[in-house]
Amino acid sequence: MVGTVNALTALMAKRAGFCAIYLSGSGVAGASYGLPDLGIITLDNVAEDVRRITDAVALPLLVDADTGFGGTAFSVGRTVRTLEKLGAAAVHIEDQVVQKRCGHRPGKRIVSAGEMCDRIKAAVDARSDPDFMVMARTDAFAIEGLEGALERASLYVEAGAGGIFAEALQAPDHYRAFTEGLAVPVLANLTEFGKTPLFTLEEMRRVGAAMVLYPLTAFRVMNRAAEGAYRTIRKAGTQGSLMDRMQTREELYDLLDYYRYEELVDRLYGNQVNGEDEDE
Question: Is 117 assigned a catalytic role?
Answer without folding.
Answer: no
